[in-house]
Amino acid sequence: MTSRASVTAGARVVAVVLAAAVVAVGGQLMPGFYDATCPGLPSLVRRGMAQAVQKEARMGASVLRLFFHDCFVNGCDASILLDDTANSPGEKNAGPNANSVRGYEVIDDIKAHVEASCKATVSCADILALAARDAVNLLGGPSWTVQLGRRDGRDANQYAANQNLPPPDATLPDLLARFRSKGLDARDLTALSGAHTVGWARCATFRAHVYNSSGAAIDAAFAAGLRARACPPAGGGGDGNLAPLEQRAPAAFDNGYFKDLVARRVLLRSDQELYGGGGGATDALVRAYAADGAAFAADFAAAMVKMGSLALTGNSGEVRLNCRRVN
């Protein structure tokens, strides 16, 4: 049972990080950024995401992943939404994105409705930030106040996408270093990794972990089941076979992922590294979140705001009329 003290402590963390996130961008992001120019924006985004999740629950996890993979390259500037051009290879076909990131058409649809209501006003980056929040909440997770006022980037960066996004076999020191480079600490890393409480992964991304795990161990029976059911050996096909990232309730945003970590029953080595890997820098956080879903929810919401503050604001960038191309 969650104690009142733990919930209060979690809420206090949210409040502190919310304040820090706003200061980090000089106060240019604010919840009411569109109150006068597009007051119906939150409802438009929520409606679009509700329809998408109702049609396919997995889409909630996909849009959340889309936001993560955007923010970890050029910041949360919607550069991941840009299509390739003859002169600029986009991020969509970078190695970490090509076979795993989806949901572009959901953002396109929401953007079209927003443009019809508030032309040339709302950035694709802000739509994606709102959509990620709603995706989590529609799957049963927390909600939070999204700071708004992001501008869209004019350039995609396929090289940075290949370099910056953590691979599925990343070690804990590598993960910590990648997150620190974005101003995110061990608590942020652990909480944000909890996004893997929803969604699915391809056999190609977890084969090495279930066949030849080194460093972070895996439950033997769990690995054997995956080998038999979802992931044949290399050369045997099945690269695109899917398995849920969280075994208990893969369509519900809860703390089951952390319980799976403690039981060593997760698909990705990079996930298992959070518990028992690299000197145990995040072990205590994993145990805390496994025991207290409210604490995880509070820290996840705070970390999402913190990560979302990596933004273009003011006169930087532009407000794209079409999320797939610059104006």
Automatic annotation (TrEMBL):
Which residues are involved in binding Ca(2+) 2?
Answer: T197, D254
- Please tell me which top-level EC class this enzyme sits in: oxidoreductase
Note on cofactor: Binds 2 calcium ions per subunit. Binds 1 heme b (iron(II)-protoporphyrin IX) group per subunit.
Q: Record-annotated residues binding heme b?
A: H196
Q: Which GO terms describe its cellular component?
A: extracellular region; plant-type cell wall
Q: Where does substrate bind?
A: P166
UniProt domain Plant heme peroxidase family profile: residue ranges: 28-327
The UniProt entry, under Pfam families, shows:
peroxidase
Q: Which cysteines are joined by disulfide bonds?
A: C38-C118, C71-C76, C124-C323, C203-C231
Keyword match RNA-binding: no
Q: Cite the PROSITE patterns for this sequence.
A: PEROXIDASE_1 (PS00435), PEROXIDASE_2 (PS00436), PEROXIDASE_4 (PS50873)
- Give the residue spans that cross the bilayer: none
Q: Output the Gene3D superfamilies linked to this UniProt entry.
A: 1.10.520.10, Peroxidase, domain 2 (1.10.420.10)
GO process annotations (BP): hydrogen peroxide catabolic process; response to oxidative stress
Top-level division of the source organism's lineage: Eukaryota
Q: What are the subcellular locations of this protein?
A: Secreted
Q: Keyword set for this entry?
A: Calcium, Disulfide bond, Glycoprotein, Heme, Hydrogen peroxide, Iron, Metal-binding, Oxidoreductase, Peroxidase, Pyrrolidone carboxylic acid, Secreted
Note whether Transport occurs among the keywords. Answer: no
Q: Which cofactor does it need?
A: Ca(2+); heme b
The UniProt catalytic activity note for this protein reads:
2 a phenolic donor + H2O2 = 2 a phenolic radical donor + 2 H2O
Please list which residues make up the signal peptide: none
Q: Where is this site: Transition state stabilizer?
A: R65
Catalytic residues (positions)? H69 (proton acceptor)
Give the family per the record: Belongs to the peroxidase family. Ascorbate peroxidase subfamily. Belongs to the peroxidase family. Classical plant (class III) peroxidase subfamily.
Tell me the function of this protein. Answer: Removal of H(2)O(2), oxidation of toxic reductants, biosynthesis and degradation of lignin, suberization, auxin catabolism, response to environmental stresses such as wounding, pathogen attack and oxidative stress.
User: Which protein, by its recorded name, is this?
Assistant: Peroxidase
Give the species: Brachypodium distachyon (Purple false brome)
